[in-house]
Specification:
Layout lengths: L14 E5 L4 H12 L3 E6 L2 H13 L3 E6 L5 H15 L4 E4 L5 E2 L7 H11 L1 H17 L3 E5 L12 H23 L5 E6 L2 E2 L8 E2 L3 E3 L5 E2 L1 H12 L5 E3 L2 H12 L1 H11 L5 E5 L26 E2 L3 H7 L1 H46 L1
Parallel strand pairs: 1-2, 1-4, 2-3, 4-6, 5-9, 6-7, 7-12, 8-11, 11-14
Antiparallel strand pairs: 10-13
Helix pairs in contact: 1-2, 1-7, 3-5, 4-6
Length: about 375
């Protein structure tokens, strides 16, 4: 199935905005769009990371504009969107990805920490989406991609603030999508639900746990996510889940939520930590970015998958379904033909046997 370009005319390329573009999944997404020649607006707090992301985009054939932005501030997001449109042109695709988190039991967290995670990981998506729609809706053109998570459906221990924010993004997106449908808008909202990903966030999120944070295995490389995001931005999908573990989490919460409560209470603490102790005073990026350019990948590449078979199946599920129906039809027709030919063959064989018997008797 061919990818349908959203570019506005011959010779024009897509204008894409990626929040949280300085590192991790956002960095990989920016690179993926750059490979296809897009003009990419890069939003994040870290100037070091933004500079690195801009170099990546230019090196891969795109055009970059980096704007240091804290997405928790709606005015900063609005000003960044204005600047990007003046420099690069009308925004075609907006990808909301920026996040912060705290790995901690909820009773040990402060109200300020809950507020900060909510302001970035939920309200940052609200601010980005509304800035995008203020420009897309009057033009009746554009796509907003929300980077979701399996945790949007099934929360886990030690990440109450982050899970709550992802649930909020899901509710906000579903409500807003219905409003756009009601208005007859051709602007599209889509969500890409993620599994555990090998990003640098585990080296800088705030934690109160004794050992180093880690993504819950199985782990995927951020480039797997980036390819899925690019594909989803160009195909009409309401939601796209990456990796079978994401589907397991979504279906598990639907059918056995109580059992999962107890299972996660049993394994959820250990699975989110390595065996390596972490200093209790290590720096984190909750309120301000850490210096340096961290790139897209984290510290778990030796355990991360570069490919997702489930993601491939999800992309081509329509063609695979048609192929399966074709095979099923071919099998059924063959089965019916064998049923119909069986009695005829037996009847013919019986007549032949009787004829031979008569001939022997006459002889």
């Amino acid at each position: 199935m061919a990818v349908k370009s959203l570019s506005r005319g011959k010779g024009n390329t897509e204008v894409v905005v990626v929040t949280g573009a300085s590192a991790g999944v956002g960095r990989a997404i920016a690179r993926e769009f750059a490979r296809h020649g897009a003009k990419v607006g890069l939003l994040a707090r870290s100037q070091d990371g933004l500079d690195g992301a801009a170099r990546d985009v230019e090196r891969l054939g795109g055009r970059a504009l980096a704007v240091a932005t804290d997405v928790s501030d709606d005015q900063q997001v609005e000003e960044a969107a204005d600047r990007i449109e003046r420099a690069l042109g009308p925004i075609d695709i907006w990808v909301n990805n920026a996040m912060v988190s705290v790995l901690s039991p909820a009773l040990e967290m402060t109200a300020e920490e809950f507020r900060r995670v909510t302001e970035v990981t939920y309200l940052g998506y609200v601010h980005g989406t509304l800035s995008a729609l203020r420009r897309m809706v009057p033009r009746d053109h554009g796509v907003v991609v929300q980077i979701g998570s399996a945790l949007s459906y099934r929360a886990i221990p030690l990440q109450s603030a982050y899970c709550a924010a992802k649930h909020a993004v899901q509710g906000f997106t579903e409500s807003l999508r219905s409003e756009l449908i009601h208005d007859g808008s051709r602007v599209r909202l889509t969500t890409v639900q993620l599994p555990a990903v090998n990003t640098p966030q585990f080296s800088w999120i705030r934690t109160r746990m004794p050992n180093h944070p880690q993504p819950v295995p199985p782990i995927y490389q951020p480039e797997v996510i980036a390819r899925a995001v690019y594909w989803t931005a160009h195909h009409r999908r309401r939601e796209f889940s990456v990796g079978y573990p994401t589907v397991q989490a979504i279906l598990g919460d639907k059918f056995i939520p109580g059992l999962l409560d107890h299972y996660l209470a049993w394994v959820g603490y250990e699975s989110q930590q390595t065996t390596q102790p972490v200093p209790p005073d290590r720096p984190d990026n909750l309120y301000k970015p850490l210096p340096g350019d961290f790139g897209a990948r984290g510290a778990f590449s030796d355990r991360a998958h570069n490919y997702s078979i489930h993601s491939w199946i999800n992309r081509y599920r329509g063609w695979l379904t048609l192929g399966g129906l074709g095979l099923a039809t071919w099998w059924w027709q063959g089965r019916q033909a064998r049923k119909e030919n069986g009695p005829r063959e037996r009847s013919s064989s019986s007549r032949t046997s009787k004829r031979r018997a008569v001939q022997r008797f006459a002889a």
